[in-house]
Amino acid sequence: MTFALAACGGGGAGSGDETTEPAGNGGDTAAAGDQTIGVAMPTQTSERWIADGDAVKSQLEEAGYTVDLQFANDDIPTQTQQIDQMILQEVDLLIIASIDGTALTSQLDAAGAAGIPVIAYDRLINGSENVDFYVTFDNYNVGVQQATSLLVGLGLLNADGSENPDAPEGPFNIELFAGSPDDNNAGFFFNGAMDTLKPFIDAGTLVVPSGQTDFDTVATLRWSQEAAQRRMEDLLTSTYTGGEELHGVLSPFDGISRGIITALQGAGYGPTLEEGLPVVSGQDAEIASVTLIDQGVQFATIFKDTRKLATESVRAAQAFLEGNEPEANDTDTYDNGVKVVPSYLLESDIVYADNITELLVDTGYYTAEQVEQGS
Ligand code: BGC
């Protein structure tokens, strides 16, 4: 009764009577139950984004929000339309994993004008003032880990990444693949990897026989498995028909890794590492690749726990919707060309055949059956 009277008599905003506000719901913001969050994901062709979408949606719903989740089939106009539509429907906040990090400026301008906070999810959105927060993994370190796994596979480093005093002299022949040039992450992965490989290339322990080492030449538009397979086939015919042997391939994503492996097997390598298949790295711990690692075909991948990324995006969303700033752990690295976007970075792990159970099964990411069956 007292509460009701106080609530009635408290007057409007600025009356100073904060005691009538529901707990955890600062200022004039609506309760979570009345708020809708638009979640834009790039594609369902790669399972990581399906897992991201599911995890973000379910965790937001658990927190009481309504969720509009859309996938854009890796098509830029589809994604811009989806976000336009979300803004038109007056969502309270946007979480966006972009396809092309530079293609959303007008959507973000509209979101900014409507006062809708924008969280960039995993991939930075470039060229806009209206990116309020960025949740991701330490992308440079993902690249370091990819190159580390390649070096471990070649015997140049120990499995824990330390120097191997009994390392073979080589030289080893490697080829390089990078991700999509319009995805801001791709450059971070490649730089981290190349900084790690460079001392070995400079020392002559690693050689890139094709000579293709710059990002633009080795990039793979839209992270396409088919494009990667074709490029690997072309490299094999242009560079490896005179008896040269390929020993390793830097791959930035499991889909690309599988395209590379198909090309290699088609040219007579392998079919397993033991039978001479080159060491191929990866990323995302996609189930098909985890199974190939288990079977001794793909050498390694990088596990980025999408459940944790979803949790961080929900935490950031809640902070904004309660009128607060989310906690960042990096305020230097991610300059989108207009501003440095405050970021929360998560750590990733290298998956080898011998730690699949510990990293992926024991943590409930996959079941042992899924690892065995590859689906
Ligand atoms: C993500 C990677 C993913 C790639 C392809 C990148 O932006 O960070 O985890 O492998 O996109 O989907």
TrEMBL record:
Residues 37-324 form the Periplasmic binding protein domain. It is found in: Cell envelope. Residues 1-33 are annotated as: Disordered. Pfam families: Peripla_BP_4 (PF13407). Keywords: Signal. Its main location: other. InterPro entries: Bact_Solute-Bind_Prot2, ChvE-like, Peripla_BP_I, SBP_2_dom. PANTHER family: D-XYLOSE-BINDING PERIPLASMIC PROTEIN. NCBIfam families: ChvE (NF040907). This is Sugar-binding protein. It comes from Oceanitalea stevensii.
